[in-house]
Amino acid sequence: MKASNKQFRFTLVIAGSLLGCSLAFGQAPTMQPPAQGQQQGQQQGQQKGQQQGNQQAAPLTLESTPPPVTAEEEAAFKAFNEAPQTDLAKKDQAGNDFLQKYPQSRYCAQIYSWQVKYYYQIGDIDKMEAAADKEIALFPNDAQTLAIAGSALPRKMNGTPADQQKRLEKAEQYSQKALDLLPTFQKPDNMTDEMFTQAKNQTSALAYSGLGLVAFRRGKFADAIPNLEKSIQLDPQPDAVNYYLLGICNEKTSHFDEAVTDFTKCSNIPSGLQANCKNGIDEAKKLGATQLSAPK
Known about the structure:
- The chain is mostly helical.
- The protein folds into two domains: about 70 residues, no CATH class; about 200 residues, Alpha Horseshoe (Serine Threonine Protein Phosphatase 5, Tetratricopeptide repeat), CATH 1.25.40.10.
- Helix content is about 60%, strand content about 0%.
- It contains twelve helices and two strands, in the order H-E-E-H-H-H-H-H-H-H-H-H-H-H.
- The protein has a two-stranded antiparallel sheet.
- A hairpin with a 2-residue loop joins strand 1 and strand 2.
- The chain is elongated and about 80 Å long.
């Protein structure tokens, strides 16, 4: 099978990465103080860096002064927080109900931020994009949401060529802005140095993945390689998608030994890409052998 005819597949399962750990559902952004009565998972995420027994990195945002709230609004937001994690669709509906009733609430950004992660996990990139755009409009310096959206948008390219180009441009802008913002953040008092470094590294990993995906989509394989490599280096449990893309990019640029290594690592990660990556190993080896045997 020729490289140009490969089926390009994405998986939205990010095992153990930022989306599966520090972006666990229910965690509130640090842009405002936690509401009284927030669920235990949120308090653990902000105070101890723990949620449901897993270490996680707190979201990275710049502080902003929120508007006041009424007692009714506070109670409604508490109800959203306390919605069971076992029924995320119901929690999402509670969030949408809140947003409709209190469109100017200080808590809207927190709900949008939660929805970004939820829609990403269920694979609804269009809804994720809409939620991310609304959250970023309220808090333009939310590096975490910028990085999530930047890495997610290039994974689903639908619409007209003009629409696809706009999505790539947005993904590139969001990813780059996240990387530009990260050095400006100071460690919160309730985070250890290790957790703060983890949070920055994981957010950076997503942003670099976004830049790599954008370059890949544009056919700039040589430009994609260093960004995908940085993403993999910063993520303690790299996404199989990044290894798969890196394998293709190395193959396209005639780095066949590197491609074999990338496809091998991809094939060892449980995901929907394992069969593609195993095929990639064989193909990269054959192309490498052909190159060695070609007359000079």
